[in-house]
Design goal:
The complex is a heterodimer of chains A (646) and B (380). Chain A has 646 residues and is an alpha/beta fold. Chain A has 26 helices and 9 strands. Chain A folds into 4 domains: 40 residues, no CATH class; 224 residues, MetI-like (MetI-like fold), CATH 1.10.3720; 168 residues, D-Maltodextrin-Binding Protein, domain 2, CATH 3.40.190.10; 133 residues, Periplasmic binding protein-like II (D-Maltodextrin-Binding Protein, domain 2, 3-Layer(aba) Sandwich), CATH 3.40.190. Helix content of chain A is 58%, strand content 9%. Chain B starts with a strand and ends with a helix. Chain B has a 6-stranded mixed β-sheet with strand order 6-7-8-3-9-10, with helices on both faces. Chain B is an alpha+beta fold and 380 residues long. The interface between A and B is medium-sized, with 24 and 27 residues.
Chain lengths: 646, 380
């Protein structure tokens, strides 16, 4: 028995701490590899501290966690006192249950329902965007509250109920009695509750994801955005730091909780130490909170302009690994040029459909968004875009002729192309026979059953089947879509999975052998591929051409600033930095004609990204996705759901 | 009116359906030691809390030196309380606990030190200033609680069963100490207890409460010697309570015998309750007894024996220093002034027969009929 329990304990420890130990180890890894430890280095930590946006999100998270936990602590303590005073035990029990609901409720439901409420109230009040820092704060207070009550209420119940009476008997007003007699007794509970609330707020992702507004990104959401493609060791460094911060907080909370209730059983010295710790901790916590609030107010009031940008994840050069920090650069350049400080809030989305849903719901407001062609068409149909003033965007002249006046914006009044690309097939040459390579058939080849990846969005997935069969990807004929759906159903049994950005890690690690994705991303995979993997790429004969373009949604608060930003993105140095970082083809002649860019990219990349073709416009017009009527879109998504379920 | 320091008039208090206090009228004189005595749930603590200001009556008024203080909050009343579980502040040490009230009153630290030191001397805890409360024994905590209240020089000290948590020996000691403190500081004490012995030893006046009503108010000797009804007679000390008929003044008939007594003023042939204290009954040879019976049990109590005698099915308790063996046929002799006559009340017939009061351990050896009776009645 004894040995069994020892083994059990050891196993628990291993599973709990081994991952963290590995995380810690690799955060100090000289190389980027996940398999080889190339030597001790602090470079990921250095890089982390150079990453302005991440540090900003750390600051945001701390401000949020401090204010949310402080408010929740005050409210929760007051609520506990109230609940404790209730005489009727049924009423009290129901209060208990009600306050516990947010704790047992799945986060996702809390998040969605809070967002719905904010948007509902916001639109009633006629706000252009309902979600902001304040809605995020309210949400965090909401889910932190039960944790505080859970800690404080038992302390109140343990307390001799005549303590406050004794204080009043000795001349205290009821208020004084609370502060002088009750508060010191329940302080351990309050401190523990506050620390719990703080840690809950600190690492909340789900609720924040639904209730955050534009421009206030918390750390978990930032990390989620950053890890969509490949996980950089910078994240290990950050996770390691967070782990130790939380660990310290927990230790402190345990230390303070040891006192209280068991006073007589504890050694006096222990109690004294805990009391002293509490005496230091409480003012310290208060100071930190007040300090951060001051920082929030000062920095908040100091900025005169804000620009909210909404882009795909990993779709801008962000200063990591020595690249140009586009956003920081813009802020610096703008202030130098116009003498007015500007703050750019940069948020990311995972798919066109997500972005469309969030923007059309009126939940958030952005000044610049970068969707794909068919979504731009859809947004225009819904009057969601503003016509641009091209005199503010002189750099538009460098956009190649082929990329202007495309179908989604025939007069070119609303958009400025950012990147373009072609969908291709990626395969692991160490697994796939050269003879099988060439067309879409590889994606249906039973030889590679179980290691094929396809898109996890309806339009792109249907595209693969339709190109394969030579069907029109923009048809409104339901029979044609049915045919494509059959093809996808036939492919389903041999799939490894339907994925979006998860493709990077799966392919780079060699877990899957065949996949289809956007050309530029192939290079990102190659960069991080494992030793036994040899990724190769080709375009099937018929495939999708796409353009992502910058545009300004109608909820924009400062159109001129947005246009200046778009123009800045087209300027030589910035455009090159972005093109090199993203690896997508660039429609900007300043980039494609630049010697250094061509050299940096290398021959192979240039060949793949810019394949020889007679006319991009013609290929694009033949193969690009168009926006379809809502009926057809609805039919496609019902087919898609069927495929996903089967 | 100065003599009547506190006056409760027509106090009524109800919790839900339960009436806790019913038309309660009571006054407390200055510098008096008053005890509210009664079984648990009789309303004594509620009465105390109404005086302290922690409860407000549903109707009725509380007067302090003739002024209505019914709605005055506790912190503005000139009374201090010693709570049942002391309610000392665990986060403060002895000194700070005692100084608490003075600090709230914003007294200069210098004066506080003087007063606290004086108090510590009085309660014999000099040198304990810095001790945490949790390290003190029950008796020490008790004394700190008293000091914490008295240091404010209240006009009245309210004590809510302050000794109930102490063991017997310590309780006796604290009883003496409390009485001594009360005489030294010369203020009014209102003391709540369910322990009749405690009430008798310490009080100037005892107020016996039951079911939210005052049963009797009087000095300890009055209460003991002249109980007003069967409840008081039974609750204060031991009593044999019998149904009797007042034949005429100073003649009462019970247990089939007519006795001379000292009470009068009842109607002719009026049914009454007769109280005879166990220590006032003498055991005599059967032929000399006014009443004749059989001894059913004898218990040695140290100073005396407790003897249960069956007389025509009614079990008497007798306390005597003379031994008589179980089973002996004996006679009882009662002096006229040992017989106390009470008017019939709602409590008549409920108390005073010791056939109900059998030691459970003795049950096994007893006859079966006794056992049944004992069980059903003890379940109450």
């Amino acid at each position: 028995m004894k040995r069994a329990s020892k083994i059990y304990t050891a196993l628990v420890m291993v599973f709990l701490f081994a991952p963290i130990a590995i995380l810690l180890l690799f955060s100090f890894n000289e190389s980027k590899s996940l398999s080889v430890f190339a030597g001790f280095s602090l470079k990921w930590y250095q890089e982390l501290f150079r990453d302005g946006d991440t540090l900003e999100s750390v600051k945001n998270t701390l401000i949020l966690a401090c204010s949310a936990s402080a408010i929740a602590t005050v409210m929760g303590t007051a609520a506990s006192v109230g609940i404790n005073k209730l005489r009727n035990k049924y009423v009290r029990a129901s209060y208990d249950t009600v306050t516990n609901i947010p704790m047992t409720n799945p986060d996702i439901i809390t998040g969605i329902s809070l967002m719905l409420m904010f948007v509902f109230i916001g639109t009633r009040l006629g706000r252009s965007s309902s979600l902001s820092f304040w809605t995020l704060l309210i949400s965090h207070v909401t889910f932190c509250l039960p944790y505080v009550i859970l800690q404080v209420l038992p302390k109140l119940r343990q307390m001799d109920p005549s303590l406050p009476e004794a204080a009043m008997d000795l001349g205290c007003t009821p208020m004084q009695a609370f502060f002088k007699a009750v508060l010191p007794e329940i302080m351990p509970g309050i401190v523990t509750g506050m620390i719990m609330a703080f840690t809950m707020s600190l690492d909340d992702f789900v609720i924040s994801y639904f209730t955050q507004g534009s421009g206030f990104q918390t750390l978990p959401i930032r990390i989620y955005g950053m890890t969509k493609k490949t996980v950089t060791p910078k994240m290990y460094a950050l996770s390691t730091i967070i782990f130790f911060v939380i660990l310290t907080l927990l230790l402190i909370s345990n230390l303070t909780d040891e006192d209280g209730g068991k006073g007589s059983r504890r050694k006096a010295a222990d109690a004294e130490r805990a009391r002293r710790a509490r005496r230091i901790l409480v003012p310290a916590a208060a100071t930190v909170i007040i300090g951060l609030m001051v920082v929030l107010i000062v920095t908040g009031s100091g900025r005169t302009l804000t620009l909210n940008v909404y882009n795909w994840g990993e779709y801008i050069s962000d200063g990591s690994e020595g690249s140009l920090d586009t956003i920081a650069e813009f802020e610096k350049w703008y202030e130098e040029t116009y003498g007015v400080p500007v703050k750019v809030n940069y948020d990311t989305f995972a798919s066109n459909e997500d972005m469309f849903a969030k923007l059309s719901g009126g939940a958030v407001a952005y000044d610049v968004v970068i969707p794909s062609d068919y979504t731009i068409a859809r947004m225009l149909e819904n009057d969601m875009l503003l016509p641009l003033n091209y005199s503010n965007i002189p750099n538009f002249q460098y956009i190649g002729e082929d990329f202007r006046n495309l179908y989604y914006d025939p007069e070119n009044q609303y958009t400025v192309p950012y990147t373009y690309g072609i969908v291709g097939v990626i395969y692991n040459a160490n697994v796939v026979d050269e003879a099988d390579v060439g067309g879409w058939d590889l994606m249906w080849n039973e030889k590679y059953a179980g290691s094929i990846l396809t898109f996890n969005n309806s339009r792109d997935a249907f595209g693969t089947a339709m190109y394969k069969l030579g069907l029109d990807v923009n048809t409104t004929d339901r029979a044609v879509w049915d045919r494509a759906a059959q093809e996808l159903l036939a492919q389903k049994p041999i799939l490894y999975g339907q994925v979006m950005d998860e493709i990077y890690n799966t392919m780079a690690a060699g877990e899957a052998a065949v996949a289809t994705y956007y050309a530029g991303d192939y290079f990102t995979m190659v960069d991080s591929q494992a030793d036994h993997v040899d990724l190769q790429f080709y375009y099937p004969e018929r495939t999708n051409y796409f353009v992502d373009a910058m545009c300004i949604p109608t909820c924009c608060q400062n159109q001129e600033l947005a246009e200046i930003f778009i123009n800045f993105m087209l300027s030589r140095e910035v455009a090159i930095a972005n093109a090199e970082y993203i690896y997508y083809a660039c429609p900007n002649s300043l980039v494609v004609e630049d010697e250094e860019y061509i050299e940096d990219m290398g021959e192979e990349a240039m060949e793949i990204l810019y394949p020889e073709m007679e006319s991009f416009r013609e290929a694009y017009n033949t193969y690009a996705y168009r926006n379809l009527d809502p009926d057809t879109l609805g039919y496609i998504s019902s087919l898609w759901e069927e495929i996903k379920i089967n | 009116m100065a003599e009547r320091l506190i006056q409760l008039q027509n106090i009524h208090k109800q919790y839900g359906d339960k009436t806790v206090l019913e038309n309660l009228n009571l006054y407390v004189k200055d510098k008096e030691f008053v005890t509210l005595l009664g079984p648990s749930g009789c309303g004594k603590t509620t009465t105390l809390r109404i005086i302290g200001g922690f409860e407000s009556p549903d109707s009725g008024t509380v007067l302090f030196e003739g002024n209505d203080i019914t709605d005055v909050p506790p912190h503005q009343r000139q009374v201090n309380t010693v709570f049942q579980r002391y309610a000392l502040f665990p986060h403060l040490n002895v000194y700070d606990n005692i100084a608490f009230g003075l600090r709230i009153a914003k007294m200069p630290e210098e004066e506080i030190r003087e007063r606290v030191t004086e108090m510590l001397q009085m309660i014999n805890l000099t040198g304990y200033e810095k001790s945490p409360i949790t390290k003190l024994s029950g008796g020490e905590q008790q004394r700190v609680a008293i000091a914490r209240a008295l240091v404010n020089h209240p006009r009245v000290l309210l004590l809510d069963e302050p000794l109930s948590a102490l063991d017997l020996k310590l309780r006796k000691e604290m009883q003496r100490e409390l009485k001594a403190i009360q005489q030294r500081v010369g203020i009014t004490f209102v003391f709540v207890t369910h322990d009749q012995e405690e009430a008798l030893t310490m009080s100037d006046t005892v107020v016996v409460l039951n079911k939210g009503r005052i049963q009797q108010i009087g000095s300890p000797t009055d209460i003991y010697n002249e109980p007003k009804n069967a409840f008081v007679a039974d609750f204060i000390g031991e009593s044999n309570i019998l149904d009797g008929i007042m034949l005429e003044d100073k003649k009462v008939r019970f247990s089939g015998h007519t006795f001379d007594c000292v009470d009068g003023g009842f109607g002719r042939k009026e049914p009454v309750d007769v109280v005879v204290r166990p220590e006032d009954v003498d055991i005599v040879p059967r032929e000399k007894g006014m009443l004749k019976g059989t001894i059913t049990s004898v218990t040695f109590m140290g100073v005396h024996y407790e003897i249960i005698v069956d007389i025509n099915g009614f079990k008497w308790m007798i306390q005597t220093t003379d031994f008589a063996p179980e089973g002996a046929e004996i006679g009882l002799y009662i002096e006229p002034d040992a017989i106390h006559i009470m008017k019939k009340s709602e409590y008549s017939g409920l108390y005073g027969d010791y056939s109900l009061d059998i030691d459970p351990e003795a049950l096994d050896f007893d006859e079966e009929e006794d056992q049944d009776g004992a069980e059903s009645e003890q379940a109450e």
